[in-house]
Design goal:
The complex is a heterodimer of chains A (435) and B (606). Chain A is α+β, with helices and mostly antiparallel strands and 435 residues long. Chain A has 2 domains: 183 residues, no CATH class; 240 residues, Alpha-Beta Complex (Aminoglycoside 3'-phosphotransferase, Chain: A, domain 2), CATH 3.90.1200.10. Chain A is built from 12 helices and 15 strands. In chain A, the strands form 4 sheets. In chain A, strands 4-5-9-10-8-7-6 form a 7-stranded antiparallel beta sheet. In chain A, strands 1-2-3 form a 3-stranded antiparallel beta sheet. In chain A, α5 packs across α10, α6 runs antiparallel to α7 and α7 runs antiparallel to α11. Chain A is globular and about 65 Å long. The N and C termini of chain A lie far apart (64 Å). Chain B is α/β, with parallel strands linked by helices and 606 residues long. Chain B has an 8-stranded parallel β-barrel with strand order 1-2-5-9-10-11-12-15. Chain B has a 5-stranded antiparallel beta sheet with strand order 16-17-18-22-20. Chain B starts with 54 loop residues before the first strand and ends in a 13-residue tail after the last strand. Classes of the chains: A alpha+beta (435), B alpha/beta (606). At the A-B interface, β11 and α4 of A face α10 and α11 of B. Chain A: It catalyses: D-maltose + ATP = alpha-maltose 1-phosphate + ADP + H(+). Chain A: Keywords: ATP-binding, Carbohydrate metabolism, Glycogen biosynthesis, Glycogen metabolism, Kinase, Nucleotide-binding, Transferase. Chain A: Its EC number is 2.7.1.175.
Chain lengths: 435, 606
Amino acid sequence: MIDPHELVDKLVSALPDMLPNLRWFGGKDRPVSGVRPLRTTLLDDDLVHVIVAVDQDGRSSPYQLLISELADSYESTADPELNGVLLDLIARGERVDGLVFAHEPDTELRTGLRGRPVGVEQSNTSLIYGQQYILKLFRKLTLGENPDLVLHRALRGVGCQHIAQPLGSITTDLDGTPVTLGMLQEFLPDAVDGWAMATTSVRDLMAEADLHADEVGGDFAAEAHRLGHAVASVHADLARALGTQTAGATEIASAIASMQSRLDAVLHDVPELGEHSAALREVFEQAREHLGDIAIQHIHGDLHLGQVLRTVQGWLLIDFEGEPAAPIAERTAMRSPLRDVAGMLRSFDYAAHQLLVGQDDDQLAYRALEWARRNRAAFCDGYAEVLSDPREHAFLLQAFELDKAVYEVAYEHANRPEWLTIPLSSIARITSGGE
Amino acid sequence: MVEETRPDAALGLEGVPHTGEAITAGGLLTEPQAEDFQSAKAAPRDPVWYKGAVFYEVLVRAFSDSNGDGTGDLRGLASRLDYLEWLGVDCLWLPPFYASPLRDGGYDISDFRAVLPEFGTVEDFVYLLEEAHRRGIRVITDLVLNHTSDAHPWFQESRQNPDGPYGDYYVWSDDDSRYSDARIIFVDTETSNWTYDPVRGQFFWHRFFAHQPDLNYENPDVQEAMLDVLRFWLDIGIDGFRLDAVPYLFEEEGTICENLPRTHEFLRRCRKVVDDEYPGRVLLAEANQWPSDVVEYFGEAEVGGDECHMAFHFPLMPRIFMAVRRESRFPISEILAQTPQIPDGCQWGIFLRNHDELTLEMVTDEERDYMYAEYAKDPRMKANIGIRRRLAPLLENDRNQHELFTALLLSLPGSPVLYYGDEIGMGDNIWLADRDAVRTPMQWTPDRNAGFSNCDPGRIYLPVIMDPVYGYQGLNVEAQLNNTSSLLNWTRHMIEVRKQHHAFAEGDFTELGGSNPSVLAYKRRWRRPDGHEDIVLCVNNLSRFPQPVELDLSDHRGSTPLELTGGVRFPMVGELPYLLTLPGHGFYWFQLVEAGDDSVPGGETR
């Protein structure tokens, strides 16, 4: 039996040095000025749950950790046996001090499974239990219910077929506000993400660039069509479950204003964007002038090919958290579903062009564009089978797409300068009237 | 008034025993009996042999000609049994070799109890069976239950003597209005399922060609007569039947006249005859339908199946081609996920190619367009609803793909059915009519007529393949036997490996998924009666490019994958996903050897 508080004390003193090296730590750009334990819970003889406040620049953010004396450098999530405790607690629906482990109504879970951590992850930690369940632990905690859990539950409630079904949760309160610590979902071992599917198709096309995109064996259009259908079904289900509103001139003006201010900020950092600034502003202005009221609702918020999974039952959408860097108010607000569509359309562009980075080959560039056009169109066709055709709202869709591309410019500039050509050439193409 | 003719007049079987040689005082046709012939010694006893057998479809006409008339025959086939035994074949499937006017490739049978004279005699068939059984090889053949040729003496009697014992053997009607909900299957050639017979002055019912009248299963005598046909060949020693066109036996007003309950009832009667009188023989259903419908033909699951022992899995085959062209496992994964469990005593038959076109009936319209675009670039390659090509040309003669496809055929759930000639990578001839493209003579040697026949080359039933890529001078059995790296030797080795692991035959199938859509990975797990588990792991790269894959083998932590073709031990499975890399169109077969299992050669786990 360990003394949890002694262990936490040791952890807290080690954390300031450890944090910058931990993958899930979101504040790597600023020095850590202090770490304070907020809550310590003994979950099992060898397993301690701890929430710490990490102070940086006078701001403080809560993070959760699972630690054990048995683990190297405290962190226990690498230990499949210890991870099994979390699933068992959820299955039994237990409350341990302030932590609430619950399974969704009408679900029964297997216990005694080992939990293997997923290798590749950024801001969260996910554990896979026996090919059946996946538990996502949110590392940096946000006050208020997590949109991922809220939207998954709502979609389950209306019988949505295009999600991994939610099975349970770990929640608590911090300062009287609910906080989501983790979400358990069905795990789909046969799933492949949309990015891998799409780039497989592009690779096939690039190897036979004398054939057109609709002639090669690896043509993706049928998948893109089904994907469009799936995204529209999820939008329809979200609207059914959580309602819709109408955004009027004021809301639209403020959305356009934030696009303009993002553009201003990026122009400041990335001079290459300068030649497109007038054209971009014109598109944003046009959107403002031509728009009447638009329907808004809850949406995915950060949709791209990496957030969709192909399974034998069809396409699923995952990770309804919204853009992790955005403030929680924005992530949970109702917005136009065309934002999700724009995100997917941008993603098709990326999938088509990513193999060309650093290459200068007109033939391949032509094929890439052909692939992107074919699959963007197929996606919209599939979407239009369920909801209205997104291309009917060309002004708004274009504005969303360009706004996304401006964001990509900033991201590539900071992280992968050689990829900058992808969003820049898209901006040039869209503003000059191409798709 | 049409002059009455002898009922056996249209058979052309003078001098050999046949149906209708004589007519009894009661008007019954004399039929040959099994006792008139010798019967073959049975194959070694094994009641569930079909679950693990490697089948080989061979056209008698195309395999070997023993008498120099330019057409393959039963004696010729018997002379090639050593080759088939060497290859590892367990069971031959022969398309019909019965007496027939050959207006539908022999599926228009004019006498169920006689052999087509150009193929030989019933005695020759007994000889083939005897020789095959001596080598442990079984033989099954097609049997058409639904209809006969209009040259069959039964039909001749039926049209001439409506009040005689055969008057009610076929479905006759005064008009052509009944059963109007039944679709017309051969829409290219037939305009109705009814045809007027001027001799009897009535219409007769036919689901296929107008020269193939449907038997009337409402008549108990027909049921008995067909059961006796089964008994005739089973007595002679045949190991089973592929039942052709089974969904159509009965008609019922207001239905589409397919898959009716009474059709299943009759199949149960056939099965009972087999179980009671001829245990160890099999019935294989040909029902080109979706797997969820085909399972009906296995019968009641609670008793392990009480209709057919086997059925072909039609939709899987086109999807294997599609998956490789798309470099995506989903076409295969989806159809296997939609395939229901089958009763204990049953098994699927799976195949890549057969004597018909690569059939595309069991795909969606979108998929069919895709398959045509990818595999039938020349419109001549299309036939009916399908593609009339052999395996090697379909794969553009790519050895790596040919091996990958064969590995899939030998490792996916079901008993594999090879098509003659594909083991040496034979080509096709799309300038021949219809499905003859894939029915050219087997290529044995570089000699005259590819060693198939010593006849004058002009007399041969179809020209041998002579093009520079697939021509018999270079591509033949003899050349490949002498080359250890040939496709033939490779195929034989893979069949041998398959037979060493019963998991390939009866093991559970579990797909492993994985993050790479181009890699299809699955486990086959078989629990031996002594409780020992045999687990094989198959990993297939459907892409032409090299691929990595990370597989979740956490259930097998501590096991060691033993590669099955070479016996190389791979690194032990640990906690992390198991990383493998595969060359373009590459595949692996592993046995997962548990730590401490010393039943495996070199099984120590140091």
